[in-house]
Specification:
The structure is a homotetramer of 392-residue chains.
Chain A: H1 5-8, H2 11-16, H3 19-39, H4 45-54, H5 62-69, H6 76-87, H7 89-92, H8 101-137, E1 142-147, E2 150-156, H9 157-177, H10 198-209, H11 223-249, E3 257-259, H12 275-294, H13 309-334, E4 336-338, H14 340-346, H15 353-361, H16 377-391
Antiparallel strand pairs in A: 1-2, 3-4
Helix pairs in contact in A: 3-4, 3-8, 3-10, 4-6, 5-6, 8-9, 8-13, 8-16, 9-11, 9-16, 11-12, 11-13, 12-13
Chain lengths: 392, 392, 392, 392
């Protein structure tokens, strides 16, 4: 899925979007369809059983299916042929009954998305927990706030961590809210083959897959894909923002944080490369590129000639790389070393100048303790921590 | 804002993101801040009154402010200077008290977004109503569904319009759900100048602007901007999908729809250019390009050195062009001529082949009436219309 | 063209892509066409004179043309109508003779691009000269090279400036190499109205405009636009890379460079915001967003229904913002303060560790002078300066 | 590399960017470095021999290297460690001598790019030849030109194929012109370890790899990557434009072309899906998404913390998918069925209206033969064919 995959993307995420995962998901969809059709009385129960028995991924060679798919434009058509051949003459006609390739692929995509979402949720929860610990622990750790990368006025590391935390919680909530609908419309989106029972089949099919029932087939209304992509992009972006800050704070000249296992070098012992922060940023760039493709819904009429097919690779990459970004930042946060003394030492005299000027104008005495100039910093930290506690 | 603006973007949308609109919004923000600070007892009431009186856009020259802003990196700093000069020595210190330029610009951006959202809502509602009429009227108008632009099986124009309708309703709901938060954090996001009263000021400030109160300042957590951009992109994309279908159905050889006032030509009378559909697609491409920038949240530490400044133009363009896309598609839909006879005439014999084959396998007689093969098409239309009715 | 235009984009660049500039360019194209047709004997000389006389921008109201263009999809059709009305019955038929709207708009776009390219060339040359001075002056100014923002081993500021210089020279050369072709094909790209003389007209027309003669009309082969966009993106990107480095080196904790007129603050005197660097980065993000649109050549058949129309605004923005990026970085470089002592002081002990280890393994004595470990740094500077001298 | 790889990307392209190909290329780079260092007298010849012997990809486990690379941020560091271990104590120090990870990865990337470029060149040449045949064969095949997808005036299929041809030739020439430079700078871009002999090593190293010698190391001047990405995007885009036209001309209602082995369906025999055209478009979208990432050169100081690492996957995908796009369109063109009769039959009466009106105004008789109104169409075809002949 990605070059040097294990470097960027942990195995569960790689496995979750592999071609094997797609094959497995497509077969789960075919099985769910047969089951739904049996339950709605459209195909005999024997057919559903026969289909279910042959929906075993080990029976199929994904490479062959993809090669064969070159002449049909997708891997479902050859898969259905192979599945029908295995089911045999009697029930072959009930395989993929009334469905279209896109029904299978789109539903399979949503199954993969659901799996990755679950993995992302765990990672985001852990990353948020690590942020919450940092925010709590450093409520009273003053440091310089930097605007345009110039020291401005004091803040606390706790507040910085609180802002990271909030972004992670937002990303997690957004993923959780995502609608991941089943797809079933048949060739034209009319469920023509099911007569009066179309809506029943659709409901049952979605229930079998534990996906949401869509109001209408969404063959060329790609809003579910676009919203998924935007949510993945947001999650990766939250990770990348933390990564950016860590990279900046870990600079040799700033040295306010470091990664526990900073990528070192035998010959350059002074280097503590913020490797996980960099990996998170790298992955997020990849997600962002794919999100641009996946939010471009120019799909023609009832099925797109290119725009749809482009989604499979883009979605797999976006799902995997979002996993890479979030995992890297979780690791980064869990091992983040915060150097409070250095934070204090870095604070320049000028940092309090604005406050001194204020005080002077107001006839007050201005002290030298940055803690006296933190305004609502701690109150904001408390707000973020409260949101965190509620999120669990 | 855009080249050939009146061609693409109706005046209210252009006006809503003009530099004059930004100036007006920035002044509204300064006024709201002074008012909030008075109500929370931080500045004297006389100051709020003095500020309010000078927050009159006609007193300032936006061109000069922007020229002056070149050396400070934004137009707020010169505006505050000018405002302070007008307020005069006594209360000048209460102008922009405790705020930072980004507080003003981000809050102003949200005010502009709110204004455009309201305009978009009206346009989307009208476009949806036009779609609903088409869906209702053409529930029983059969036509060929086309996959990969090849005729596949029958559908109805009503179902096609219902799918367009649903996408418009989704886009509208998504915009309505958007959180448009006020921004107030002061130089470091700590509201340092307000002592213990920071959260009160924030609440009051947001209330004055009728914007949402954020949990934390979001100077470098750009999620509100990203979600706004994604929602604008989705709205423009819904318009562009309709535009794409209209362009395809309006082709000379298909001729199933036409725009009422198709862009004609005195020398090529056969041409009925689907001009509004094309304009909607053009605008949507522009929104999509800006959305990619606006969803890229790599803002450094407490204020970005470039990424933030890049948002102003991108957001203005995205807001304006989303307006252009949705308005063009509303006009397109309101004037859409549907040629039901041609739809019927275009249907090839092969279109029923799949159904005939099905019927044969099942020992049924297969008729030649496409209306017999529409499955749940009408039920889907009803679902979309129900959603539409509920949306009003 | 851009929000807060004067803040980001100097007047010559803004003027060069304004609607007035487009109008002027469209009229120059109509005049050139009439002239070319006269010289090739297709229309009478009186017609060319009549057209030329009425091709005065002050005679037309761009706003009205754009409003009228809403129903035809572009501003050329109303402009031609207005021009014909002014030319009067006799020669009206020779106005825009045999041309199509896209011929006029695409040729006008290339005229605008040529104008902006010339402005960019001057700015890039000045920016390169400033870089060359810095490179020359700091050939022997050691500083820490930073990888992943960690100090690595020594380099010189001269080498850094040399790398910036080379990127600017490359960007300039790439712009200079650009082919900016005239567009003339008539409605279908066949020059049908000129009979046997089509190629003569095309050659003459291109010559009149001093644009390149294309091999074929390029109505839907958007390579010229894509290459222009890529070259603008590259120029802006070269500026943004310098901006990024300046922002990083200007950080309070690094303080190795500063902008001469750093955006200061009366209340935060310690701040020397790298404003021009930030503006360059902001502009470059805008160019990059538009470049993505402009390199997407999915234009249908003989004229696109949306993709073409989307180019006008995107191209104007990309041209203007490229100007903004390059100008800002030129100003930044011309005023860049280099703090050689601080560079030396910032160098950590670890910086020589790799070299010491090397020396030790090789049984050599390792000194403490970073100048002893600069390898080919100076030779590389010389290479870049040589290229610079050749470029003038 | 891509989901359902064999469906989209032929094996040679997949193999050319696989992790195995990267490993092989990285080892070729290490070997070339040792060889260059021997030839320049920096390391003993025995070392080069020892390194060369161990630069056998079968000795290394790419998966392990990538896992190990997670803590160093790239796979080169673990590879060098493994290589050193195999070379053994004596010469281990000469492995990767004076180089940095980025030297190896960037040079390896250029080797991969060179391999894919060669494959692309062959495919583009074949696609161009197929276009040339179509252009030649259909010089006198009239058809409707379509603007905004409305029939406009007559053209020939030959001219359409000639325009496709020219775009393919341009894309091919652009790829051929690409500079693919070696990368060698050492940790800071100074070649510090080679003393006075740095430039000699660089020249020799580039020669060994048959890559271009760069003027300066380009660790954070990503112009070579950006230009490569733009050229890949242009090649895929040329394919996608052809694919778009084929999809449109192959529509059921137009039926002017069809793919020889159109993706059919047993149940919908009327369908002749333009599968290869759709695949080309799908691949091109993927290339375009990655090109946006790869042309974004915001790499910090002497090595980027994220932006560089993001390139590996993006570049692999772009290279592979460009191969997919061009191969699909080559197959499409080689098997394209052109239905000249249908082209003639589709031409509406209105198509000649403009010409009739012209003739009438000029007092000429207007005939009904579209061939009489083709202007320079054939001359343009000849121009494109001449360019084609010269390109071989």
């Amino acid at each position: 899925m990605t070059t040097f995959g294990p470097l960027f993307v942990p195995a569960p995420f790689r496995d979750g979007v592999s071609d094997a995962a797609w094959l497995d998901a497509m077969l789960r969809v075919e099985r769910a369809l047969a089951s739904a059709l049996t339950k709605t009385g459209i195909v005999p129960a024997s057919a559903a059983a026969a289909v279910a028995e042959r929906c075993d991924p080990s029976l199929y060679d994904m490479n062959e299916l993809c090669e064969a798919g070159r002449s049909t434009g997708n891997p479902v058509e050859p898969l259905v042929r192979a599945l029908r051949a295995r089911v045999g003459a009697g029930d072959a006609r009930y395989v993929h009954y009334g469905a279209t390739s896109q029904d299978v692929l789109d539903s399979a995509a949503m199954l993969l998305a659901r799996g990755i979402r679950s993995l992302l949720d765990t990672e985001l929860a852990s990353a948020a927990a690590a942020c919450a610990r940092l925010a709590e622990e450093h409520r009273a750790t003053p440091m310089a706030a930097r605007t345009l990368l110039q020291q401005a006025v004091p803040t606390t590391f706790g507040l910085k961590a609180a802002a990271w935390l909030l972004a992670l919680l937002d990303a997690r909530a957004r993923l959780a809210r995502l609608e991941l609908p089943a797809q079933l419309g048949g060739a034209a989106g009319t469920l023509a083959s099911y007569g009066e029972r179309g809506l029943d089949v659709l409901r049952q099919f979605a229930a079998e897959l534990e996906l949401q029932e869509p109001l209408l087939p969404w063959h060329t209304d790609r809003s579910p894909v676009a919203q998924l992509a935007a949510a993945l992009d947001a999650a990766a972006d939250a990770a990348a923002k933390i990564g950016l800050d860590v990279v900046l704070l870990a600079q040799t000249e700033v040295a306010e944080v470091s990664e526990r296992d900073g990528g070192g070098s035998s010959t350059m012992p002074q280097k503590q490369n913020p490797v996980r922060a960099a990996l998170a940023r790298a992955c997020a760039r990849g997600v962002h590129a794919q999100a641009s493709l996946l939010t471009s819904g120019d799909h023609e009429l009832e099925r797109a000639a290119g725009a749809w097919q482009a989604e499979w690779n883009a979605l797999s990459s976006a799902l995997a790389l979002a996993g890479g970004a979030v995992t890297a930042i979780r690791e980064c946060l869990e091992g983040l070393q915060v150097h409070a003394k250095r934070m204090r030492a870095n604070m320049t005299d000028g940092l309090l100048a604005e406050h001194r000027a204020f005080a002077e104008r107001e006839g007050r005495e201005a002290g030298d303790d940055p803690m006296a100039y933190l305004g609502s910093a701690d109150a904001f930290v408390e707000r973020a921590l409260t949101r965190f506690r509620e999120s669990r």
